[in-house]
Structures are given as C-alpha cells and as structure tokens.
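Hi all, posting the design record for the shared folder.

TITLE: backbone redesign
STEP: 1 of 1
STRUCTURE INPUT:
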C-alpha cells in the first residue's frame, strides 16, 4: 500500500521556505543567495527521491517539484531583472 512519508512533506516544506527568505531579502535583510537556493536544491532532491520510491504516493513530491521549480524560476527572474538596471 502506498503512503505519504516524511520525505514528501520535507520536500514540500523546503520548497516553500525560499519564499520567506526572499521576502526577508526584499525587506532589507542581508542574506546570501546560497541560503536562498539551498532549500530549493534540497527540495528538488527530496522530491525526486519521493517520486522514485515504489511505496510512496507521488502527488506531494510532484507538487513539491512543481513549486520548487516555479519558485526558483521566479526568484531567478527577479534577480536578473533587478540587475538589468545596474550600470556596467
């Protein structure tokens, strides 16, 4: 019987954490980009582990993977666009 394990829930939590870190960065906190993208890498890794397990339900790891890629792309887009106005 397939069930949802802690790997799925951790991947979902780690995919949401960068949203709060990014909001803190916009608020003026001095946080490095490594601390911003590290939870995304962990979330994608855990989601892929959850998807490949045979006794794991796939719905939460797939949602986590979609959220992680979406959040990462959005944050990357904001960083790139904000750097476009900088003088060279």
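Okay, here is what came back for every position:
SEQUENCE:
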């Amino acid at each position: 019987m397939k069930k949802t394990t802690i790997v799925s829930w951790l991947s979902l939590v780690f995919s949401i954490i960068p949203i709060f870190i990014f909001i803190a960065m916009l608020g003026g906190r001095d946080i490095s980009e490594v601390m911003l993208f590290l939870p995304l890498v962990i979330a994608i890794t855990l989601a892929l582990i959850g998807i490949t397990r045979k006794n794991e339900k796939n719905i939460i790891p797939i949602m986590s993977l979609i959220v992680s890629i979406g959040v990462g792309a959005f944050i990357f887009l904001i960083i790139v666009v904000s750097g476009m106005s900088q003088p060279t």
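COMMENT: The chain has one domain: 6-83.
Let me know if anyone wants the other runs.
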